[in-house]
Design brief:
Pfam family, one: DUF2589
Structural class: alpha+beta
InterPro entries: DUF2589
Helix content: 10-25%
Strand content: over 45%
Distance between the termini: 95 Å
Radius of gyration: 64 Å
Number of strands: 13
């Protein structure tokens, strides 16, 4: 095919771009749809029980969320250490006089950390002393005084408290399984289709000539002779004699020559097509509806006693 009769544009126009580009594009769209369906199937098969159908009415009851139950001990009452000489009460036996509301209360003795507040009436007498911190290490020698007045008399009561162990209750926690598993939300983030066509046309003509020549030269020469005469004395005196000599020569010269001319022409077309499809997928964000559903399920997580 001669180049003058070949059109690369016509070659490209004959390519079925609709199938070449539409095929991968349709595959990308189908992949996105399959990813969405796989998410739905995952939620229904893992997060919910199967739907049930009434054999009589044919009514379908949707499945309920699947919960995972956990049992664990929960401390309902903490451990209380043993306390010796804690003040349990301060009884006022004589309210005295001259006291004011909010006056400082001093607790003196061998113990530590006990604190109390005084209640004073309108006449300046202390009517009650309230213990706000029982402290520890106190005994019968403990004294209590209130600043600002005189005549106060009280009776301090102390006790030794034994250690109280912690109290635990067995609790049961129900957690929706959908809140514990990563839900596959696969999204086709980017799709790239590359088509490369490389067409190389080439026409060539080869012309060659060859000349051959040869020469040869030859020379030949020859000489020959003959003689005749009588014999004896008398004959040799009177007889005739003759002699003959021949010379010959030849020359040969030869020339050979030849000339040859060759020519060749043609055309060559190389066609290369490349189709590349690149897809980038990612884990998509949870849709708003699914996020709200998970929030409702999380709010339903409640720890309850097992009753054991």
């Amino acid at each position: 095919m001669a180049i003058s009769n070949y059109s690369p544009g016509q070659e490209l126009s004959s390519i079925d771009f609709q199938s070449m580009i539409g095929g991968p594009l349709g595959a990308i769209v189908d992949a996105q749809a399959q990813a969405a369906l796989s998410t739905v199937d995952f939620i229904k098969s893992v997060g919910f029980t199967p739907d049930s159908e009434d054999e009589t009415t044919g009514e379908v009851t949707p499945g309920t969320p699947v919960y995972v139950n956990f049992k664990y001990p929960k401390m309902v009452s903490p451990y209380e250490a043993a306390i010796k000489g804690r003040i349990t009460g301060i009884a006022v036996t004589n309210g005295g006089s001259g006291y004011t509301e909010g006056a400082a209360v001093t607790i003196a003795g061998v113990g530590t950390d006990a604190r109390a507040t005084a209640t004073v009436n309108g006449s300046g007498a202390v009517t009650a002393i309230n213990v706000t911190n029982a402290g520890s290490g106190y005994d019968g020698s403990t004294t209590v005084s209130v600043a600002g007045g005189t005549g106060l008399a009280v009776t301090v009561t102390t006790e030794d408290k034994d250690a109280v162990p912690a109290v635990f209750a067995e609790m049961q926690l129900e957690v929706p399984i959908l809140t514990m598993l990563p839900i596959p939300f696969i999204r086709v983030e980017e799709g790239e289709i590359n088509f490369n066509a490389k067409i190389t046309s080439m026409e060539f003509t080869n012309v060659g000539s060859e000349f051959k020549g040869s020469t040869s030269f030859g020379y030949n020469s020859s000489t020959s002779g003959s003689a005749s005469g009588g014999s004896g004395v008398i004959t040799s005196l009177f007889a005739k004699s003759s002699a003959q000599v021949k010379y010959s020569s030849s020359v040969n010269f030869k020339v050979n020559a030849s000339y040859q001319r060759t020519s060749r022409q043609g055309s060559k077309v190389d066609k290369t097509y490349q189709l590349g499809v690149k897809i980038k997928i990612s884990q998509d964000e949870i849709p708003a509806g699914m996020e709200k559903l998970l929030g409702i399920l999380e709010d339903a997580i409640v720890a309850q006693p097992t009753g054991n």
